[in-house]
Design goal:
seven-stranded mixed β-sheet, globular, Fimbrial biogenesis outer membrane usher protein, Fimb_usher
Length: about 900
């Protein structure tokens, strides 16, 4: 499977057929072409000469002139800026060897390299001539010269005349959509379907009986995009067997019922240029500080760069400006680690989007010019994702009826409501402020906070006050974080975090939902004071030590429910972690605590101080396998998990195993999954096992609930009238890729040979399932066994997809014919070394570039059956040729010799 364009042209070599693209790609060929043109022009019409002995004399002296023809020669030459090829420009070499340069052509290729003042000087060059002499550029103080040896135009301007360039190191800044990108479909959508057969094995253990039964299940999630509106929906047709496993340390108090159940439904409208999203239906609001964020049936408006412009960084990432006076090698180091080496030409550079780690960062820019002189530009920068760059903002407004899931069904508190809002703003790069408000029928709360970068670290202060049925209260919190600082170890790798939060006994947040309503009940700790601190530092031998402490003072006066545990909690730990070898790393935790792992409707309160020991191992035996093993005496829990994958793209396999054991209730669970991911579907085999009587000290294992599921997942998708079946869509956008009717019987492969993402074949279009939203992406394609000379066009589709957007991408087209032949004048002379344009008579907007070699031979691709006019840029008026391509031509077409036709 390979895409070919000119490889099948029946010329002796690729140099026999030149196009502007080929000329740009191969400077050697371009130089040969220029030499041939000049030599042919110089010796045209000269009499034959016979060599004589030493001291030879020629009938016509050999000239050092570029142009000896006595008439102007036109051609395209490259423009170089140092080692950069800016593009090709048409020039004219007069009979006196003076050089004229195309005004529009040179402006187009060098304008981006010039600063504002230089661009203004270029625009004010006198006259309206199409071609300008080189002296005019010198008078405008723009260095432009013609190199006779390399046949190139050389741009040479001072650093202060150049445009300021941005160097983005993190790759966060992404190009916005442009006209060269593929356009998303006006109407598109998909539905993911996950059908499974579930079998519960008959079992009797620990007083519980499980009847053997088999049932089916169908999960679905869908999205339809029409214009800028997206409608999302998700739900399940549940069978008699509840496939959900009750979470560890929780109690599941609901009764499973089969039937159709809806997870959520919502309508979404995005304004990505303003980073604003509007939602109606089941919405999930943003929140900050002390706010609750329950799901609501209502309306949400939010400004979120993280969602609608994920490629941009809205936190201040630091940066600086430096000047390069001579061609230089530049090395950018952050915290002593080289992030990038780059060769730069003279100019002014803004360095942006530094790949900073959270905390303090030392930035050093090392500039070594072409004569070996070294210069350093150094500065410090602090980074935290919670900070906002000066002038940046984010906000959210939400109102509606609170909701929750019970037994996979969306339920609503119809007698309640909640409204919430917040606003965050970057006052400057080192200071962000926020305000928030929230209310329901029982309580109203308002708050404010600031986050600032001090020399001693990042400090956040927040506060809130509430008023409601339970009385009035207030809350306050402070966080202090110092990362990557030099302290006890004198290495730039220490970190420290301190947090404190106070809540008065009558302080409440809006939007609290009774946990018993969900049917999945977790024990809860309520406090009026919560303190925590952590310090970590490297201590040598590749080992990092961390000390952490925490203390919670219980608030049990306002919470008398059996769901809440009482009494104060505290703990102090020391953790040592280090790599053990190339494949394994481990950690050991030692400490004291009165915390205990809680379970049950009536959780037990902490009692007495206990010694704690925990160990954990992480392994990566090979690139496809991950293993984690751990045991903690505090929770009396051990766990083992492993994951392994084989292959990439479609046709890959993976398997995972997860084992958990809880000694406090002498139970264990084992979950195993094997998955295969194909072109049209994915298949997963899942088994869940429960065991009783599992204890380190008393091993009396008894099998508990056992369940096996076979699941098949697929998707049905459409985009602008095209339909396809494929693997489940997992990204925020998708694409259907299909062949043009001229290659309808061929197989289109999406991706690379090592990572095939989808295949379009006799079963229909391919579905690319994982395109990102509001970020650039590309979709490479290839076609097997296409006809010789078939012009496939672009081998990659570029996308910048909207949320849940779909694409209908056609590979190939009606304009797939590649033609070759010879152009001659009426007297039989070759039309040599010229460029021209071919256009279709019935569709003049369809054009292709034509280029001839010294023998007048030409090649052109991107044509279709029909009548074409070739216009060659000869002296005076263009010379026209007629090219008729028969209807049955598919791929390569030999025209033979073409002669000029009348202008009419």
């Amino acid at each position: 499977m390979a895409r070919r364009r000119n490889d099948h042209y029946p010329f002796q070599s690729r140099a026999d057929l030149l196009s502007p693209d080929t000329a740009r790609r191969t400077p050697q060929t371009r130089d040969t072409l220029f030499a041939l043109q000049v030599l042919l022009a110089a010796f045209a019409g000269l009499p034959n000469c016979t060599a004589v002995a030493a001291g030879v004399e020629y009938q016509v002296p050999v000239s050092s002139k570029l142009n000896t023809t006595g008439k102007p020669i036109g051609m395209d030459v490259p423009v170089k800026d140092g080692d950069r090829d800016l593009g090709d420009v048409a020039i004219r070499i007069n009979a006196d060897d003076s050089i004229l340069v195309s005004r529009t052509g040179i402006s187009r290729v060098i304008e981006a390299s010039l600063g504002a003042s230089a661009r203004k000087s270029l625009a004010t060059i006198d006259g309206d001539a199409t071609f300008l002499p080189l002296a005019d550029f010198a008078s405008a103080e723009i260095g432009l010269r013609f190199d006779r040896a390399s046949q190139e135009l050389i741009l040479n301007v001072a650093p202060e005349q150049r445009a300021t360039s941005d160097l983005s190191l993190s790759g966060n800044r992404q190009a916005p959509p442009s006209s060269v990108l593929a356009s998303p479909a006006k109407l598109s959508g998909y539905v993911n379907l996950f059908a499974s057969v579930d079998h519960q094995w008959g079992m009797h253990s620990a007083g519980e009986s499980f009847a053997e039964e088999t049932s089916g299940r169908l999960e679905f999630d869908s999205a339809v995009r029409a214009g800028n509106f997206v409608f999302e929906n998700a739900g399940v047709l549940a069978g008699d067997i509840d496939i959900n496993v009750c979470p560890t340390a929780a109690v599941c108090a609901y009764t499973h019922t089969p039937g159709i159940k809806r997870y959520m439904s919502r309508l979404v409208y995005d304004m990505p240029e303003d980073r604003i999203r509007i939602e109606a239906g089941d919405v999930e609001p943003l929140g900050t500080s002390f706010q609750n964020t329950p799901s609501l049936l209502g309306v949400s408006l939010e400004k979120s760069g993280r969602k609608l412009s994920p490629g941009d960084t809205f936190a201040p990432t630091g940066g600086g400006t430096f000047i390069v006076n001579r061609p230089s090698d530049v090395e950018i180091r952050i915290n002593g680690i080289t992030q990038r080496r780059v060769q730069l030409r003279p100019g002014t550079y803004n360095i942006r989007d530094l790949p900073l780690v959270t905390g303090a960062n030392d930035v050093d820019i090392v500039i070594i010019d072409d004569v070996g002189r070294e210069q350093h530009v150094s500065f410090s920068s602090f980074f935290d994702t919670n900070l906002l760059a000066a002038g940046a903002s984010e906000w959210g407004i939400t109102a509606g009826v609170p909701s929750y899931l019970r037994d996979e069904s969306r339920e609503y508190l119809s007698d309640s409501y909640m409204a919430s809002a917040f606003y965050r703003y970057g006052l400057r790069d080192t200071l962000a402020g926020e305000v928030d408000i929230q209310a329901d029928p029982h309580v109203a709360m308002a708050g404010a906070g600031v986050l600032t970068d001090f020399a001693s670290g990042l400090v956040g202060v927040r506060g809130a006050a509430s008023v409601g049925e339970a009385g009035s209260g207030f809350a306050a919190g402070v966080d202090w974080t110092v990362l990557n600082f030099r302290g006890l170890t004198q290495e730039n790798a220490e970190s420290f975090h301190l947090s404190a939060e106070y809540r008065s006994r009558c302080f409440h947040s809006a939007g609290d939902i009774d946990a018993a309503l969900t049917g999945i009940i977790y024990p809860q700790w309520n406090y009026w004071l919560n303190l925590g601190a952590t310090y970590s530092a490297p201590i040598g031998y590749q080992t990092t030590a961390s000390v952490s402490g925490r203390y919670q003072v219980a608030n049990d006066e306002d919470f008398e429910s059996a769901l809440f545990a009482s009494d104060n909690r505290y703990g102090l730990d020391l953790t040592l972690s280090r790599p053990l070898n190339a494949e394994w790393s481990g950690s050991l935790t030692l400490g004291v605590s009165n915390e205990s792992y809680l379970s049950g409707i009536s959780p037990r309160a902490p009692s007495g101080t206990e010694f704690r020991a925990a160990v954990r191992l992480f392994g990566r035996p090979d690139a496809a396998t991950n293993v984690s093993v751990g045991y903690d005496t505090l929770n009396e829990q051990s766990d083992v998990s492993a994951y392994r994958s084989a292959g990439n793209g479609i046709g890959r396999w993976d398997t995972s195993v997860n084992v958990q054991q809880n000694a406090f209730d002498e139970r264990a669970s084992v979950n195993g999954v094997v998955g295969y991911y194909g072109n049209r579907a994915q298949v997963r085999l899942i088994h869940n096992s429960g065991f009783d009587g599992v204890s380190i000290s008393d091993f009396r294992v008894q099998p508990g609930q056992q369940r096996t599921s076979l699941q098949v997942g697929t998707s049905l998708a459409f985009a602008d009238g095209h339909f396809a079946i494929g693997a489940p869509i997992t990204g925020d956008a998708f694409a259907l890729v299909y062949p043009h009717e001229s290659i309808a019987d061929k197989t289109v492969v999406v991706g690379t040979p090592d990572d095939v993402r989808a295949i379009a074949d006799g079963w229909g279009p391919a579905i690319v399932t994982n395109l990102p939203a509001y970020a650039p992406s590309n979709i490479p394609v290839d076609v097997a066994d296409i006809p010789v000379g078939y012009s496939l066009g672009a081998a990659t589709f570029d996308t910048f997809a909207p949320m849940k957007g779909g694409y209908a991408l056609e590979v190939g087209s009606s304009y797939s014919v590649s033609a070759y032949g010879t152009l001659q004048s009426r007297d039989g002379a070759p039309i040599s070394l010229l460029t021209g344009t071919a256009y279709q008579v019935d569709h003049p907007d369809k054009t292709a570039t034509v280029f001839t070699n010294a023998a007048g031979r030409f090649g052109v691709e991107g044509l279709a059956p029909g009548r074409w006019i070739i216009e060659m840029e000869t002296d005076g008026t263009p010379t026209r040729f007629v090219l008729n391509i028969p209807e049955n031509v598919d791929g390569l077409f030999k025209t033979g010799i073409l002669h000029p036709v009348d202008a009419s």
